[in-house]
Amino acid sequence: xxxxxxxxxxxxxxxxxxxxxxxxxxxxxxxxxxxxxxxxxxxxxxxxxxxxxxxxxxxxxxxxxxxxxxxxxxxxxxxxx
Length: 81
Fold this sequence. Notes:
- It is a single chain.
- The chain is an alpha+beta fold.
- It contains 2 helices and 4 strands.
- The protein has helices at 49-53, 69-80; strands at 3-5, 24-26, 31-33, 59-61.
- The longest helix has 12 residues, at 69-80.
- The two termini are 21 Å apart.
- The mean pLDDT is 96.
């Protein structure tokens, strides 16, 4: 499942450089995560790095982009090929 940043985001700029896939970018009001690039850091790290560094805990699982760990790993392989 891809991740999503909710409206509690304070635009602190901490999460963007932590994403190994470049899935996080500045949106119109808050940071956004591209579900096509988000692998929840599967293949890179044990835990999603954006969640680890977020000071306000505004990053959640995106219920509209449900993916298994295997699906996330396959996406990682395609992105790093």
